[in-house]
Amino acid sequence: MRRFLAFSFLCMSTIACSSKQEEIERENIAIIEKYIQAVQSKDTETMSELLADDYIGYGPSYFDSTNKEQAIASWKDVAENLYDKIEYTRTVNIAEKVTEGPNQGDFVSDWATLKITYMDGRGPVFLTINAVYRLEDGKINLSRSFYNEADVMRQLGYECYAPE
Question: What is the pTM of this model?
Answer without folding.
Answer: 0.85
